[in-house]
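Thread: Newbie trying to understand structure tokens

Hi all, I'm a second-year student working on a class project, and my supervisor (Dr. K.) asked me to get a predicted structure for one chain before our next meeting. I've only ever worked with sequences, so writing a 3D structure as a token string is new to me. If someone could post the tokens and maybe explain what I'm looking at, I'd be very grateful. Here's the chain:
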Amino acid sequence: MTPVFRKGGRRPPPPRPPLDPRTLWHSTSFRAIALQALVIIVVIGAAALMIENAMNALSKRGISTGFGFLTGEAGFRIGESLIRFDAEDSYLRAYAVAILNTLKVSILSVLLATLIGMIVGIGRLSRNWLISRLAAGYVELFRNTPQLVQIVFWYTAVTLLPNVRQAWNPVADVYLSKRGLTLPWPEAHPAWWWTLFAFAAAAGVVAWLSVRAKQRRRAGLSASIRGTQLAALLMAAPVATWLLAGAPAAISVPALAGFNFRGGATLSPEFLALLLGLSLYIAAFIAEIVRAGIQSVPRGQIEAANAIGLTRLHLYSRVILPQALRVMIPPATAQYVSTIKNSSLGVAIGYPELFNVSNTIITLSGNTVEAIVIMMAVYLTISFIIAALMNWYNHAVRIRER
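---
Reply by user tm_fold:
Sure, no problem. This is what the structure looks like when written as tokens:
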């Protein structure tokens, strides 16, 4: 009998034998699944037993349990928040403020660390002796010093700045004092939030279109959209939203009034210290990741690119970075997740991030177990989201071998 082959010349897989309950245990795959399910059941059961014992012990001591405390009145103030918060608000709103503060400092730290890390990483490979040694000195200094020490150092440095009346004025309308960094800022208007939302949505669409275009090029098909069109789409959506929302353009400029500045926006010393401590420390590791990724590209490909006359920009954008990214993304993801978790070090200098606010809530409400569970769930969720996004990006830019 002539075997039947599928289109493309590949041999079809052999048919699986029907399942027989009598011989099911002799199946290797079935035993593996059964044992893993048994381990999961045991772990969940042990965790449930421990939580029940803890709840019973707390109940015997007259300590309230459960998540009902979240709707209770907080009774304390938070010095820095992106949304309005008063002492009369609930613990749930206090958690929202703490999560937003954590996200603010973490996202800015990731962006700043990536920018500094790329510059320093490329600088380490420079043929200029001074630049390469300065980059190496930066990496050795910040990588081999405890991060908590760096955060305390930056906080001490900021608090030693002059008073408000003697504030440094390095740029017009920008002031640096022991109260923090004060700079001009757009006046509050709902249009800015809509513009930010439009920019985020446009960035997601542009990322999807660019990945799709890259996949078409790899398949030998023509890409229906170009880089200039993607850039235009990225800018057109937020600009159109801003215009439709009334085009607010009022800028609040800080001015000295009494013992403090009035107007503008002020970044507190705690925020500045934590931002510098997180970003400069992680940037040292990202610099080494960038250096290792670039050096992983075979030397022959760089020489071939130079031989055909590629410019420096095209050499990096079309030869080096596409191959270096597959080496750089996994360790960079670990550093990004580490940045999120290390934001809890802000408790050492009084920055109201999630860990700091949770400690206050535990002291006032007494719901220790619930507060720790909430804190772990938030950090776990943020870390999983970052890991998933980076894994998706890594899958999209990977080089598929034919």
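A couple of things are worth pointing out once you decode it. DSSP finds eleven helices and eight strands in the chain. Residues 31 and 37 are 10 Å apart (CA to CA). Feel free to ask follow-ups in this thread.
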